[in-house]
Design brief:
- It is a single chain.
- The chain is α+β, with helices and mostly antiparallel strands.
- It contains eight helices and five strands; from the N terminus they run αββααβαββαααα.
- A hairpin with a 5-residue loop joins strand 1 and strand 2.
- The longest helix has 31 residues.
Amino acid sequence: TDTLPEALVMDVRGFVRRGVDKPVTESVVVGPHEAFNESLRDNITLLRRMVRTPRLISRMKSVGDAFPKPVCVMYLDGVAPAESVRRIEERLDGAHVDHVSSSGMLEQLLEDDPLAPLPQLAATERPDRAASFLMEGQVLIALDGSPRMLAAPISIWHLFHTPDDTGMRWQYGTFHRVVRLIGAFIALLLPGMFVSMTMYHLRSLPMALLTSVME
């Protein structure tokens, strides 16, 4: 009414956008079958529907000097380390680039070492996996126009985590992670070991196998 000294301003504009669909790269058998889309508001709503607590903090920022784009930093107050939140916000504020068109470009602005061989942020298109990152103390970064959220900081175990692990008993989920880790080491080391044995350690191979390799 006219007697109130304050008023609320809300943006009620609508845009053409893709609806909530099934995950493309992180499909599961047991668990929710919904994924983020390109709308930042929809993604925040999906996440807040799963994490219903006033401790979930959302801070809106923008990145890009010439063409600014909205970015949302989300974390659980009292769970995420304050130092991690501060460092991420400082890097977003200090990112002086013309535009950021994807979460991949945003990831390069936030990572510690650009020459590191392993990813330093985890990306997910699933709200339930993003919620699990929040519960573990990670900070989420959502970019408008990107159907993925970034989580930081992470360890190597987060890179071997799949959405199916959350719906399993911890024994099965841990076993699957160990199997993936062993498989990654085998895929990295076995070709080099094979080449070294065939080139420099021929006596270590059986003659029948060596003959087949030579043929």
